[in-house]
Amino acid sequence: MKIKNSIIVLLITSFVIGCTNKRTENTLFERISAEFSGINFENTISTNDSINILNYEYLYNGGGVGIGDFNRDSLPDVIFTGSISESRIYINKGKLQFNDITKSSGIDTNGKWCTGVSIVDINQDGFDDIYISVGGMGNKSMFPNLLYINNGDLTFTESAVKYGLADKGESIQSIFFDYDLDGDLDMYLLTGGGFENSAINIRPIIDNGKSRNTDRLYRNDFDESLNHQVFTDVSLEAGITIEGFGLGISVFDVNNDDWYRFICFK
């Protein structure tokens, strides 16, 4: 019996190895180690009596990942946003290897619970800028969203207030598109609302446009006196009044009339 069992185990092992090798040969993707790529970001969530799923139902939603060409060398760079972990930015050196420039970049999200990131050239200077949505536990207007303007030398300057984008609600994700067809990119901001609606705090949905959980639409206008773009909240006049509690958003022209519609996932 021992010999037969050994043969069976050997045959099974050979079959598994054979299947594994065959599967590897036919895969479309290859896993690259952090040691090789230089990307070692981890969005670690450590729970305790204060930080847990009962106090914050969006605890494990995670942050966002943004891809942009921050130094205009035609290689895609990466920024990861973290919940408790610090957000980190990596510059592509080529051949699937990256350099962490977070410390020298000026991007600092310590103490901020980041939920999403969008890459957009806000000031239309040819360099990708970074807009970070901020939320998290107990964020009652304490942590406004962050806009990092690309200085063109792999450093960034936080300028959300300057551009009118320091939204103080608990946002989840932003999306930039030209909703009024005037040639510039406006912004729709998807909100979550964990500090307002947790698993142990139930209340009616607010539909008056005054809740921090209501999605926002920002119109982009060029201010001649300031000589740069300024975003204005036009949510009420656009008819956006009900609380969103959104998790994702997409924009598309559903009937090919050149006017964009957006769909929010709740």
Automatic annotation (TrEMBL):
Keywords: Signal. The keyword Signal applies. Coiled coil: none annotated. It comes from the Bacteria. InterPro entries: Crtac1 (IPR027039), FG-GAP (IPR013517), Integrin_alpha_N (IPR028994). This is VCBS repeat-containing protein. It comes from Thalassobellus suaedae.
